[in-house]
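Q: I have 274 residues here and want to know how they pack in 3D. Can you give me a structure?
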Amino acid sequence: MVRELVPVLAAVGLGLGLAVSTAAQERTPNDPRLFNPGQLTVATGDPVFPPWMLNDDPAGGEGFENGLVYALAAEMGFAPEDVVWVRESFEQSIAPGPKSYDFAIQQISVTEARSEVVTFSSVYYQPDKAVVALPDSPVVGASSFEELRQARWGATVGTTDLDYLENILGISNVAVYDDQAGVFQAMQGDLIDATVVALPTALFVTAVQVPEAKITALLPPDENDRGHGLLFEKDNPLVDWVNEALAAVIERGVVEDLTQTYLVGDEVIPEIRE
């Protein structure tokens, strides 16, 4: 009986040893729960745009979101060269199912509907909404939601911008396009009068992409849009670790510094509240 128990006890001991070793590596760069242990694998858009990331180069570290990722990686113990970027479309990011990375970042708004199929981190940024239009648009000078409803609107499919137009402004016939470039091409082709986007995006669009356009008004936030969060595969066990690191980064003022550096404009813009 004793001789039979020895290998069993040895096997149990070995199993416990492996479990302890695995647990000891959690919340370190060699955490076995990472997509590739030893690396922090992060997904973003293809391409990426300023001010969120500059020069279509996430690894360059210049921009609000890649600046945040590198600060977060350092907080978690990763060297900059251990951050690995992968590219995917916005629609791929918010789709349910397995993810080939640890988390994604590309101005993804946390909503109740998306939270049913993916898991979000804590919110790291809550932007205002901005109306963007050409100078001869009928929305220029509008002072109420009712006046805005008289215009022709366009937005990118699957975005909280489209949700905002339909659910907050109450517009039922929004023209939908595959991407933001299509929205602004429609505006320049006189197919729509205006669109709604996050203020940082609006600042970049009107300064660089479509300089003839302008921000005509700021709008109140959507209560169903809780702000931007990092997106994980549903129930990813890394979320608590990342959230603790994100809280520490925010506490140190990193997000505020990045906001002031990349996202805040100088222009005084009228507000429409209802």
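Q: Anything worth noting?
A: Residues 1-9 have pLDDT under 50 and may be disordered. The beta strands are 40-44, 83-87, 103-104, 118-125, 129-133, 154-156, 175-177, 194-198, 214-219, 228-233.
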